[in-house]
Structures are given as structure tokens and as C-alpha cells.
Amino acid sequence: MSILNHRCPTCAGKNFRPHTTYTVQNGEQGQIYYCFDCEGYFSQTKNTPMENLRTSLSLIQLVLSALNNGMGVNATCETFQISKNSLYLWQKRLAGLKKVLQLYALCHQFIQQMIEGDELYTKVEKNKPAADSEGWTIVLMDRASRFLWELSCGKKERTLFEQAIQTLTQVVEQTTDLVLLTDGERRYGNLLFEICHEVVRTGRPGRPKNTLPKGVKVRVKNKGSQAHKRGPKRPKYQAPHNEHPETEQNLANNDSHANHLEAFNSALRRKLACYRRHTNTYAKKQPALQQRLDAHWVLHNFVRKHFTTKKVPAVALGVLFVGFSWHQLFSVQCFPFN
């Protein structure tokens, strides 16, 4: 796992050796390294989530695990006798790993991806109409591995869907056969078509036809009843746009559903108190809610085993051979934490 290999934070070189040790506040030993290339010194926690933290990793692990297993912020702080500022700092450090881990996952090639897309909703700041809330959350999950490609929140507007589709287009570039299944929201397929459509030139006269990229299939659920309408009924799932003529149509009707993501949404309401219904534990600000989601994204994809696959999603996807431990997770070098 090359992502765990340390480099000099100044020159990004690998030519360094241990120099001295030091003792942190909880009694654990730390290491100072000397770099031969830039002739500088740096600690083992430089540019990692543990930089300048005096609390033991074991306590941070307990606090963040409790926060991502259903406890609210106030209950977590009271249980572990810590301040809210400390909890928010540790959560921010964990959430900051999402960017580098997502880029690491997108460096791999995938043969096939069947991605389910759906939304769920929570309150933000105060009780207001759902259309005005910033708590709409878009989830894109690979069905086989349960790997979350996207977990972002905001107002239910075009910009939120564009952010999710931009991530999906990066996945398309790394996958030879990709299927997107959504339960009724057509904006997924429409934006994907706008961003990465192809022109099929057949040599025949007339304007060339625009299609989805080769190997990409989109299926959208038709909502609403047609019992009172005459004529042939619409299929339960349909393709909203033309697909490439060379795309293999091997998707059975029974496979066209987003049931796995519906189960994840139910689990998310149990694991994150800010998504629980009929309570006042909702998020106060949209950036804080996104930070909670980013931290949950990291733990879900790279640390915890999924209860159905019995594997860490990143392992099931083929990104890792073994899931990260908390010590490895907090040893990942990403960017300066100031």
C-alpha cells in the first residue's frame, strides 16, 4: 500500500533515516527523521492527521467511533469528558483524508461498476420546508463492494447533482462497463449525458447521433401509477438517453433497482444522529454536516467491514488488500494541518 509510505514533507524524498526520539504527553514514543536530500528534520506525524495533537490515538478512535455509531455530539462529549472543540478538530482531521483517499481509489482500473444513486434528507439549522433545506444528501454507491463514490449534501439544486456527476465521470474513465441505477431522479442521467456524451459517426448522411459513452448504461425508475391510463404501460425502469450501439445490453430487469442504497440510507439514519428523524439533533450548519459525511465516508470505505460482504468496501473493490487500521489511517500523509 504505497499510500502509507512516508516521504520528506519538504522535498518529497525517500532518502531519510531515524535521528532521535521524543516522548508525547501520554507517554508514547515519537520519531524524528533526518532527510539527506534537503538536510532537514521532520517528525513522524508531519502532514498527518496526528500532527500537533497531544491526545492519544486510542481516545480519538473511541470518540470518533461513538460519533459515527449513533451518538450525538453532546452525548459523546459528556461520555468521554472532552470539549466540543476537541471533537470537531479530530473530526475535521479525519474528514480531511477523504480527498487524498478518493484520488487514490480513482488511480485504479475497474472492469465493471454497477452504481446506485439516491437522495435522503435531514434538517439543517432549523425546521424549514424541505425545498429550502441544505440537508439533501446525494449518495452514489457501488453495488458489489458497497464502496461509496459520492456522499455530499446541500440544497437540492443543479450544482449538487453536478458535483456528484463530476465524480461519476472520473469513475467512468477508469471503468470499461458502468451501470447507473436511480430511483426516479432523472437529473443524474441528464447531467451525465451533458458532461460526457459521445458523437457516433456511422458514415450515413444526416447529423450524427449523441449517445452515452461506450460501456455506460443508465436506468431510471418511472414513478407514478398508470392504472387509469390506456395503452401500453411504461417499463418500470427505462434508459433516459441513447446508449452507444456497441454497449453490451446485459442488464436484466430484476437487477434494475436501488434497494441496496435504500438499506444504506436507513443505516445512515441510525449511525449519524443528525439524520435521525423526529429529534432535535440535526446539524446546525451545512459545512459541519458535510464534515460529518466526509468522516463517515472515510470510515465506511477504508476501515469498517460491511456486514453483508464481510469485507472492507475498499478491499472488495480491489483498491486495498487489507483494510486500514486506525493507526494506519492517521499515519497517511496528505497535506499540512494548520
Please, what is the oligomeric state? Answer: single chain
Separation of the first and last Cα atoms: 26 Å
Summarize the main sheet: 6 strands, mixed
Total of DSSP H or I helical runs spanning 4+ residues? 10
Strand numbers in spatial order across the main sheet: 6-5-4-7-10-11
Strand content: 15-25%
Number of domains: 2
Total number of beta strands: 11
Q: Which blocks of ≥5 consecutive residues have pLDDT under 50?
A: none
- How do the SSEs run, as a string of H and E? EEEHHHHEEEHEHEEEEHHHH
What is the structural class?
alpha+beta
Q: For the residues shown, what is the average pLDDT?
A: 85
Per CATH, the class of the largest domain reads Alpha Beta
CATH 2nd-level architecture of the largest domain: 2-Layer Sandwich
Report the radius of gyration as a whole number of Å.
Answer: 23 Å
Looking at this structure, what is the CATH superfamily of the largest domain? Answer: Ribonuclease H-like superfamily/Ribonuclease H
Assign the CATH topology of the largest domain: Nucleotidyltransferase, domain 5
Q: Classify the helix fraction into a percent range.
A: 25-40%
Shape: globular
